[in-house]
Structure formats: structure tokens, C-alpha cells
Amino acid sequence: MFSSKSKDSAAPPPVSTASSPQPKRAAGRSSAPSIISADLVVNGTLTSSGDIQIDGRVEGDVHSAGLVIGEKAFIHGEVLADDVTVRGRVQGSVRARKVLLCSTCHVEGNILHEAFAVEAGAFFEGNCRHSDNPLSEDAGRRGTEYEHRAAPAPSVSAAPASAPAMTNGGGAMAARAMDVTQPRPAATVAPLKPGA
Q1: Interior/surface letters 11-42, b for 16+ CB within 10 angstroms, e for the rest
Q2: Burial of 143 by CB count in 10 Å (0-12 exposed, 13-18 middle, 19+ buried)?
Q3: Distance between CA 77 and CA 93 in Å, rounded?
Q4: In a domain, 178, yes or no
Q5: Residue 50 lies in a domain
Q6: Could you report the per-residue pLDDT of 16-25, keeping only the tens digit for each?
Q7: In a domain? residue 151
Q8: In this predicted model, what pLDDT tens digit does every residue of 39-95 receive, in sequence order?
Q9: 60-78 in b/e burial notation, b at 16+ Cβ within 10 A?
Q10: I need a surface site. Which of 31, 109, 170, 183 has the fewest CB within 10 A?
């Protein structure tokens, strides 16, 4: 069953590096991410077919295959990527297939996603909505319409004179125009008289 090997066959055969298969990578993605270091400020759009790691400040949009936003990073613009991990701050919309909001993140904006995860302690102010293809141009247009519909109406101190009066069951436009910090008028309820 077991046999001993001769000394001649003990050495492994030589391996040719030219013919050995290389590990497969996603098409268009490089092995190392492009890095925006903590002391770098970028004004403008960043576009990459590979991965980007941002530790600095970006005033503009970021489009990439994969994106990691570091704890000290700040992005003011739209983020569009296959896979986004947010540890820092984002002010603007995020459209990605997979979004992870880490416990140290601060996101102010709407998120259009295929998969979405939030760690305990993450700060997120905005709306999130599922999409089968959040990276498509059509989803981007629908996301913009969604942002406009979901945006709060401008705050004013009182309802305009042309707005309908606030009554039970009506006056939706006047309710939107009222300042939310003002107390709403209390409803008047008349007690029932016995025997009526």
C-alpha cells in the first residue's frame, strides 16, 4: 500500500511562472485602491474603474467600483459605486449596490441601494430606498425625483393668506407651509350632555 520513493523522484518538478494561472480579478478593477490621503483636498469629480479609499476631503462627486470612506474623510457630493463602506462623513446622495454605514459614519443625504447595512451608532439623516439597479441612469433620475418629493417644504412663520384655513381633514398645503416649531391649535371638544 505504501511505497518508498527514490531519491530522484523526491524533488518537485520545476514550476513555470509564465504558464501558471493568475488569480482572477473583477474586470477593470486593479489590485490596489487609489488613495486620497488625509492631507489632500480634491475639488471636482473623481472617476475610477477600480477601488478608491478616501481619507481626505472631496468637494465633488465620486464614481468608482469600490469605495471606502475613512473615519476622517469628508465627501460633499454624489457617491456612485458598486460597493460603499462609509466610516466618515458624506453630505450628498449615495447610489450603490451594497452600502455599509459603520458606527463612526455621519451621512446626510438619500441612499439608493440594492443591499443596505447599518452598524449601531451610525448617524444617517435622509431617506433610503431599495432599487434592483441603483447604478442605472433611470434609477438616478427616479432618485432625484424621490429627493425632491421627500425634501421638506421650506419653513415659514405662518401660513400664507391664500392658503385654505386649517380644519379637520383639510388644508394639507397650509399644514406644509406652517413652521413646525409653532404649536398646532388644540381641537375643541364639547362634552356630551347627559340625556342628549
Answers
A1: eeeeeeeeeeeeeeeeeeeeeebeebeeeeeb
A2: buried
A3: 7
A4: no
A5: yes
A6: 444 434 434 4
A7: no
A8: 999 999 999 999 999 999 999 999 999 999 999 999 999 999 999 999 999 999 999
A9: ebbbbbbbbbbeebbbbbb
A10: 183
Quick one: CA torsion of 105, 108, 110, 113, rounded to 10 degrees? -10
Cell of 65: 467600483
Domain span including residue 108: 28-143
Q: What is the pLDDT of residues 156-180, one digit of tens each?
A: 334 444 444 443 443 333 333 334 4
> How many Å apart are CA 111 and CA 125, to the nearest integer?
10
Residue 158 lies in a domain: no
Beta bridge partners of 41: 57
CB-CB contact of 81 with 64 (8 Å) = yes
Distance, CA of 75 to CA of 137 (rounded, Å): 21
pTM attached to this predicted model: 0.58
Per DSSP (E only), the strands in 29-110 are 34-36, 41-43, 46-47, 51-54, 57-59, 62-69, 74-76, 79-86, 89-91, 94-101, 106-108
Q: Which of 11-15, 19-23, 31-35, 92-96 shows the lowest mean pLDDT across its residues?
A: 19-23
Q: How many domains does the chain have?
A: 1
- With contact defined as beta carbons under 8 Å apart, do 61 and 79 qualify? yes
CA 179 to chain centre: 29
Q: Which amino acid is at 195?
A: G
